[in-house]
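From the pipeline queue, job 12 of 40. The input is one protein chain; the requested action is below.

Action: predict structure.
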Amino acid sequence: MIRFIKITILFIATTLSLQANNTPEKQDLIDVTGRVIDEISGIGLEFATVAFLDLNNKVINGTITDRGGNYKMSIEPGIYNIRFEYIGFKTQTLKNQNLQQNTLLKTIKLSESAETLDEIVVRAETTEVEIRLDKKVYNIGKDLTVGGATVGDALDNVPSVTVDADGAISLRGNQNVRILINGRPSAIAGFGSTDALQSLPADAIERVEVITSPSARYDAEGTAGILNIILRKDKVLGFNGSIQVNYREPTGYGGTGNVNYRTKKFNIFNTTSFNVRNSPGQGVFRNQFFSSSVVNPLVIETRDIDRNDVSLNTNLGMEYYLNKKSSITTSFFYSEGEDEDKTINITDEFNPDNELAVTRTRIEDETEDDSNYQISLNYINRFNDDGHVLTADLQYGIDNEGETSLIAERNTFPAIEELPSEFITTDEEGNEFLAQVDYVFPINENQQFEAGYRGNFEETTTDFVVNEQLIPGGEFIKNDSLSNIFTYTENVNALYTQYGNKFGKFSFLAGLRFEHTRLAGEVSAADVDNADNLVINFDNDYPGLFPTLNLNYEISDNENITFGYNRRINRPRGRFVNPFPSRSSEANIFQGNPNLNPAFANAFDIGYLKKWGKTLTLTSSVYYQLETDAFERIQEDTGLQTPNGIPIIRTIPINLSTNERIGFELGLLYNPTKWLRVNGSFNFFQFTTEGDFNGIDYGAQNTSYFSRLSTKVSLPYKIEWQTNAIYRGPTNNAQTRNEDILFLNVAFSKDIFNDKATIAINIRDVFNSRKRLTYTETDTFISDSELQFRVRTFNLSFIYRFNQKKEKTRNNDRDNGDDDF
């Protein structure tokens, strides 16, 4: 291993020296190209080293392979020994190669070296974020601050991504983002909702891919782009894995086991985790009403939230190698959660003289049981070593969720008075079936053709029952005007094709995707209150063409410019079209809009990448997006009042006519020394919306930005120190302004037991400052609020690795939805 590191350093030094002393006589050089692959799986090995040596085995020059295992080297004509090396694999050497003209060498197949596995511990770390032409790849395992955290927490550290207090995920400030698991829609992601990601542990995933200019191979869903979450699956021969246990404060504990057993014929993998979490939160809501009919025009709600969650997740799978070219993988995912939440809402009402008139306490005890099942089957056939591949996938998932809420109220001022209670039950059942076929045909070394089909069929049924007491302490009677059964269907059939070519330093990938969408909703209720004249039942079809184009120009080996264009769609989820209001707050409700149509967007992205050796990497992009029928949440006074005389404020999603967005993004990866690594990003954007609803103009312009700075310092005695600072600038729409937020996460880790184990501590939100402050102003009311979804947390974790490298070699699976051209 030491010999390998020395050779690698020598390669880099030699390459830099040769580049520094280059003369204009490049016509004397020849190009040598080839590919390095895993002998068993046929997968290209990224970052394999290719060394060109003279006949005395002195290194003359060298390079590394790209993500597909391909390499290209410009050298002087001559006779060379060519050595191919990769961590954990047996070295191969091509001897006495007489290279006098441009040459395509045979594909090199490297086999893993089981004998040296236990000796390999890679101390040199890459940066936490890998930059590729069409995406950023975030390696979860390298971030110390997410130990014991959830996937939602981990995403909040990813450049370009933000997660708000309610768990909503945004990409470049836009919430219309598509979540994929292993390149596909999945029940693991909660059928389009992000709720499941708040219980899935960060330890269960290997990396997150941020795809801002997707090609035609990907779903057209998500006008902002795609977040692709890749689950752990090791590729190392033999039995290996890790066990991690966590303790956190506020009270919480859990553990994750990750095991893998691979032979030359099959690979069995499993990740299982169990977690108990207590997550307190709090909020204050202040509403000022202007209507003379309101008896008490000032209402202040103080909310305390205590969440107690228990979750179990397991992902079990096996890949069976039919031969060296093809394999079948089957996997089963199961998750189960039990949540007990208690919300205490104290409401103070003030009369026009600003005197306290009424104090009311509302206590909601909520329990939730949910489970997800998913079984997947994947077949892959690699016809040759040049990337000619056929893959087929089948996937079926079931999502069950049951929720009960007991809401009790009583006045405590000016006199104690018990009020009628509510008992609400929600049973939700969803199922999803996916069928997918992808075909990749390399026409020659520079050209590639792809085509495929995907069918995704989802149905979710929500049974919502409201039982109310007519008098305090009386029996509960079903409220037929609020109780309902809502069935939502989303079926998408898609065909795509794309073609890529490379001409010298210029390459392009052009594609066209056709998607036919069927959205249907059906309400079953005894008494439907439809004062807004909403279309309760609907069945609509939306066929559409979605072209994509990605261009790349290589200015040099370390510098390039990219251009991306794609047309995308944002489909409303079930909650957004369910016409029945939520009941978590009596006076502040959320109601879906069955009249909501899909939004369509045209997006453009120009990117620039520049590398200065391994010390500094600069990425930047300018992007523009024009979205029609864009979604916007607005607040309005319904004109209704609670039984206690408080006006009911409704939040409802609507289609605005347009949303024009322009932005700039900058990222820096700086590794000045072995002991310091710095990763920073900055995103500035401005969007302009136009549109009206119920005669009110909701047009607005918003300018905002957010930034991150992450530093990792290697201290003596194998101690690592990481600090993440995150700042989000203020945002606004036509009604509401969200104030800026700054918070800090820190972590320390130390390797012990001869680097087989690591102990770490992290603190999330060090200064307890992650609070959402909003201010809303309309013609009839003013509302401001402060919400802290979760307080500061401390986490202590211990991980033990057996027969496993500390930093794994990369998994270059071609069946996870990546574009390899």
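Job complete. Confidence is low (pLDDT under 50) at residues 1-27, 114-127, 806-821.
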